[in-house]
Amino acid sequence: MIRNAITALLPIAIIGLLTATAATTWLSHAPSSLALALLPAAALHFWALRHPQLIPGLAVLFSGLAIDIVFAGPMGLWTTVYASAWLIGLLQRPSAEHSWLLSRWGMFAIAMTGCIVVLAGLGEALSAPPGTLIDHLLALTILIAGYPLFAALMRLFEPHTSADRFSPQNG
């Protein structure tokens, strides 16, 4: 029972860790910092596809608000980006249940492209665009290229007791 509780909390802990990582790396202003800032969105999308019941809406909200506060940008910008990744994952879930890793890679690419569009569009509308077009394309390339490794790492923490998880042969 304790093991199940710990396993169920791991996705939230991972999102918290990725949010902290994103917050600390953003201060460096490195070109790849935008990709790191989108890692929580990548994790939210992954868990929305695999085990949506493990990620409460408040985890999405707090993760986004933490980044909004640290980045000192418009409140709600990163919350909207993270919520977009989570919601896109929830919408893609019925298609992902019986798809192969390559299909989910495509779904991830669509979701992260959507997140970049939301980030750039909202940022521009709020007169606070986080990065240039080149920064956005670099972040998108890094995230999409790194998805197989990212997904493999996330699967290490996937609960194996849940009845709704995908079968191992589906990747």
What can you tell me about this protein's structure?
This protein has 171 residues and is an all-alpha fold. The protein has 8 helices and no strands. The chain has helices at residues 2-26, 33-37, 39-50, 57-71, 77-96, 101-125, 133-145, 147-156. Helix 6 runs antiparallel to helix 7. It is globular and about 45 Å long. Residues 161-171 have low confidence and may be disordered.
Radius of gyration: 15 Å
Percentage beta strand: under 5%
Main structural class: mainly alpha
List how many beta strands DSSP finds.
Answer: 0
Residues in helix, %: over 70%
Number of helices: 8
- Overall body shape: globular
Flag low-confidence runs: 161-171
What is the makeup of the main sheet? none
Note the gap between the termini: 27 Å
The secondary-structure element order is HHHHHHHH
| Mean pLDDT over the full residue set | 85
